[in-house]
Amino acid sequence: MSTLQLDQRKHLIGLRGMPKSEILSILDRASHWESHPVTITNTLNGYFVANMFFENSTRTRFSFEVAEKRLGAEVLNFTAAVSSVQKGESIYDTVRTLESMGIHAGVVRIKAIGVMQELADRVRVPIINAGDGNNEHPTQALLDLYTMRKHFGTLEGLTVSIIGDIKHSRVARSNLWALRETGAKVQFCAPENMTAPELAEYAPFVAMEEALKADVVMMLRVQLERHEDGLFRSAEQYREAYGLTAERAARMAPHAIIMHPAPVNRDVEIDDELVECGKSKIFEQMANGVPVRMAVLERALLG
User: So where are the chain's domains?
Assistant: First the structure.
């Protein structure tokens, strides 16, 4: 196997096309790390991992950093605002620069779509996608699947409703590919100007009442600023039409759970009182991000 082929196998650019066996393998390894909550291990001792975030992040960046440090890796945090990117340096040249200095893996978040695969094709260290545009966010979807499987025992046969701004959501896309591959049914619910017609062949768009019947109701952060000429003039209007209100949540099945990738706009896409209610898994999702990302880092660096 050539170096390039080995690297391609170790990259995590997206979940579209990833086989079920590999997805479940990552989830199983995450379960191992969750059940062995040692503060720091020597698993990645001697490895240098660079977190290269060309787009703002809180949960994903800190979750990766905690995962890296728990595995014993040396962590380099790159901030675009104080780098040569501000002088016009390309993202590729920045990554190649850090690769030349001896990093062993890069965790990258960027706004542009398509650049992530270009990086994977041209560099010789594993690249982990921490979110690119509205394309994919694979580790978010993996932690979402992990949370569902942990609660229900299986992903097979679950119905998952993803509600909100599907058009701009990389979370919705990564969840769609991974959930379909692992035997779950995905359905979307969105205002007309927030739909993604290109995804309709893979998951139906349903009305809110139908969406509430699912095993998992996943709300997405609404970005009204992206829809200035849209259907809603205010956050309150959006909440009334597509928010998970306390009244709507009461109509969910007794066994159903509420999820959200965060950050949460309380009292917009989800009522404040529901964020930490008994059905909510929102903060558990965040906690699960650490063992999942530990498993992803192991896959990238140790195979």
Answer: 3-136+286-302, 139-281
> Which numeric CATH code is attached to 139-281?
3.40.50.1370
The fold of the 3-136+286-302 domain, in CATH, is: Rossmann fold (3.40.50)
Q: Which of 140, 132, 174 is nearest to 17 (CA)?
A: 174
Binned average pLDDT, 10 residues per bin, the chain of 303 residues: 48 97 98 91 97 92 97 90 60 92 96 91 96 96 98 98 96 98 98 95 98 98 70 88 98 98 96 98 98 98 92
Strand positions, DSSP E, 86-149: 105-110, 127-132
**Quick check: helix, strand or coil at residue 200?**
coil
Q: How buried is residue 155: exposed, middle or buried, by Cβ count under 10 Å (0-12/13-18/19+)?
A: buried
Considering the entire predicted model, what is its pTM? 0.94
Pairing of strands 74-79, 127-132: unpaired
